[in-house]
Amino acid sequence: DAGVIQSPRHEVTEMGQEVTLRCKPISGHDYLFWYRQTMMRGLELLIYFNNNVPIDDSGMPEDRFSAKMPNASFSTLKIQPSEPRDSAVYFCASSLRLAGGVGTDTQYFGPGTRLTVL
Amino acid sequence: AQKVTQAQTEISVVEKEDVTLDCVYETRDTTYYLFWYKQPPSGELVFLIRRNSFDEQNEISGRYSWNFQKSTSSFNFTITASQVVDSAVYFCALSQNFGNEKLTFGTGTRLTIIP
A67: which of A30, B14, B33, B86 is 20 to 30 A away, CA to CA? Predict the structure, then answer.
């Protein structure tokens, strides 16, 4: 079975440009998470969705960041305009709600997108 | 608020030695889940284990073992007879109940196995 798929794997762009990161969760999973990893802040949650609906976006740094999940098999994270401090590895993860509805099963991560903003 | 502390930033051991990675967590919930993930040099995050707060049994999987102690809020990870392929950054993480499913990660421990 395919894991979480992210594209592109690497992105290099110039400050001010729009960047779009893509994620395809594991088929059948109803939770999708976007995390960012930096040396300074470690791994931090940006936003997560349940059944395509954003549940918690408190980790989104500012209005330049936006995320959508138009259907169960696709999500995007957009940065507009990008800045050098956005350089990081962005991970997408997906999971399944546990039977009984008390939390989610294990989150499985995609390979990440390494973003460099010059 | 929940918090995960991995006090060991970096550890180096000689191949075949045993090594224990420490993880201490804070949470007010009675139901929660603890995880360990491995991040090898290639960068992906690989799931190793998941434990719920009601299951304090220690777990062993090959050379890996985990010791969960609620009394000390710790979930430590031991690698027995370490191998060079174990070199990676290891993250401990915590998640909670419905409505707060996000993972809170520790800062990670970089483990280097010296041949």
Answer: B33
The beta-carbon neighbor of A111 closest among B35, B44, B107 is B44
Q: Is the dihedral of CA A55, A59, A63, A69 positive or negative?
A: negative
User: CA A91 → CA A4, A21, A109, distances in Å?
Assistant: 10, 10, 7
Pairwise CB contact (< 8 Å): B102 & A43: no
Considering chain B, what is the average pLDDT of its residues? 92
Q: Is B81 helix (H, G, I), strand (E, B) or coil?
A: coil
User: Is B35 part of the contact surface with chain A (CB cutoff 8 Å)?
Assistant: yes
Query: Which residues are CB-contacts of B87 (< 8 A; sequence separation ≥ 6)?
Result: B40, B41, B111, B112, B113
Residue A102, pLDDT score: 60
Chain B nearest CA to A48, separation (Å): 8
Give the 3-state secondary structure of residue A85: helix
Test mutation, A4, A43, A53, A116, chain B, max B CBs within 10 A = A43
pLDDT beyond 60 at B99 = no
CA–CA min distance A50, chain B (Å): 10
Q: How far is A43 from chain B (nearest CA, A)?
A: 6
Instruction: Give the lowest-confidence range in A76-85, B75-84, B94-103.
Output: B94-103
User: What is the structure's pLDDT at B100?
Assistant: 60
